[in-house]
Amino acid sequence: MIPEIETTRMILRPFRAEDADEIWPCMTANLARYMRWEPPERAEDFEKIWRKWPMQFAEESNCIFIARKKMDHSFIGLFGIHSFKTPTPRLGLWVREELHRQGFGPEGIVSVMNWARGDYSPDYFIYPVAEENIPSRKLVESLGGKAVTTEQDPKFTLIIYHIPA
């Protein structure tokens, strides 16, 4: 069982079905412009996605953490760690648009990495970033991430970073 992770300003815990109604409206086209996915058009479309998350968590393959402010429990964003029991887990995150540039991304992703380091001892983390997503590239590089290769996604070129564990 993955415990709640507390940071200075946030509580992160695995996604639960009751979180879905609050998350879906924040999945905007602008937010997803650098994501590999397109925002679901309807709540029912999002349900098809999130229904898989608890099963993946139970299988201990992926975990989607929901982040909430400690102060008022309002929704901040999602932090994912995929294949977390492998030597090279993959990271991803998104923070709701009105909370960008407030440091929630680095705070949350570092806490997820620290959890994985403590419980699973990865060799390094993989973090794919759209080439044009300069804020995310700066975040990854601030964590010691080094660009190792690129991949062509249907939407854009991805830079694949390795972050030391």
Automatic annotation (TrEMBL):
<dbReference type="InterPro" id="IPR000182">
    <property type="entry name" value="GNAT_dom"/>
</dbReference>
<feature type="domain" description="N-acetyltransferase">
    <location>
        <begin position="10"/>
        <end position="165"/>
    </location>
</feature>
<protein>
    <submittedName>
        <fullName>RimJ/RimL family protein N-acetyltransferase</fullName>
    </submittedName>
</protein>
<dbReference type="Pfam" id="PF13302">
    <property type="entry name" value="Acetyltransf_3"/>
</dbReference>
<dbReference type="InterPro" id="IPR051531">
    <property type="entry name" value="N-acetyltransferase"/>
</dbReference>
<dbReference type="InterPro" id="IPR016181">
    <property type="entry name" value="Acyl_CoA_acyltransferase"/>
</dbReference>
<keyword id="KW-0808">Transferase</keyword>
<dbReference type="GO" id="GO:0016747">
    <property type="term" value="F:acyltransferase activity, transferring groups other than amino-acyl groups"/>
</dbReference>
